[in-house]
Amino acid sequence: MQPDARLERILATSALVIIALISLGNVVVRYVTNVSFAFTEELSVFLLVVLTFAGAAVALRRNRHVRIGLLERALPERARQPLIVFQWLSGATVLGLILWFGAKLTLQEYQWQTQSPGLGVPQWWYLVWLPVLAALMLLRLTQQTLDRLRGRLDDEP
């Protein structure tokens, strides 16, 4: 059975459907009235970030994230495990930094009560998803790494 990231799949699918619907709606309204909705770009950019992070989490969990396996395949079996741990450590460092600084930025935006430029909603509503999705990616990376170390996932998906 293939590992799954159901929550992230639902988030990514929902974000993609909403982007498509509001973009289509904006095109139709602009064609009919020669005026476009101002909020669609702001909402689309936010949903694109959600789609990217959620999709990356799904790819991590299913062992389909882009990586170069040439070095892994060239190493003897004993040397692969330290390399897999190093790969996890590198990814965890980057995701940990995104999580930390994303949370810090979200808290600052919450404290400053910054409003978004298009809809005028609190900016932290958009930013809070950055650390949340980075944490989910970190979880999926760790799950993938443990599966790889235990031999449950092949080098090639």
From TrEMBL:
<feature type="domain" description="Tripartite ATP-independent periplasmic transporters DctQ component">
    <location>
        <begin position="19"/>
        <end position="150"/>
    </location>
</feature>
<keyword id="KW-1133">Transmembrane helix</keyword>
<keyword id="KW-0813">Transport</keyword>
<dbReference type="GO" id="GO:0015740">
    <property type="term" value="P:C4-dicarboxylate transport"/>
</dbReference>
<feature type="transmembrane region" description="Helical">
    <location>
        <begin position="82"/>
        <end position="103"/>
    </location>
</feature>
<dbReference type="InterPro" id="IPR007387">
    <property type="entry name" value="TRAP_DctQ"/>
</dbReference>
<keyword id="KW-0812">Transmembrane</keyword>
<keyword id="KW-0997">Cell inner membrane</keyword>
<feature type="transmembrane region" description="Helical">
    <location>
        <begin position="43"/>
        <end position="61"/>
    </location>
</feature>
<protein>
    <recommendedName>
        <fullName>TRAP transporter small permease protein</fullName>
    </recommendedName>
</protein>
<comment type="function">
    <text>Part of the tripartite ATP-independent periplasmic (TRAP) transport system.</text>
</comment>
<comment type="similarity">
    <text>Belongs to the TRAP transporter small permease family.</text>
</comment>
<dbReference type="GO" id="GO:0005886">
    <property type="term" value="C:plasma membrane"/>
</dbReference>
<keyword id="KW-1003">Cell membrane</keyword>
<feature type="transmembrane region" description="Helical">
    <location>
        <begin position="123"/>
        <end position="142"/>
    </location>
</feature>
<dbReference type="GO" id="GO:0022857">
    <property type="term" value="F:transmembrane transporter activity"/>
</dbReference>
<feature type="transmembrane region" description="Helical">
    <location>
        <begin position="12"/>
        <end position="31"/>
    </location>
</feature>
<dbReference type="InterPro" id="IPR055348">
    <property type="entry name" value="DctQ"/>
</dbReference>
<dbReference type="Pfam" id="PF04290">
    <property type="entry name" value="DctQ"/>
</dbReference>
<keyword id="KW-0472">Membrane</keyword>
<comment type="subunit">
    <text>The complex comprises the extracytoplasmic solute receptor protein and the two transmembrane proteins.</text>
</comment>
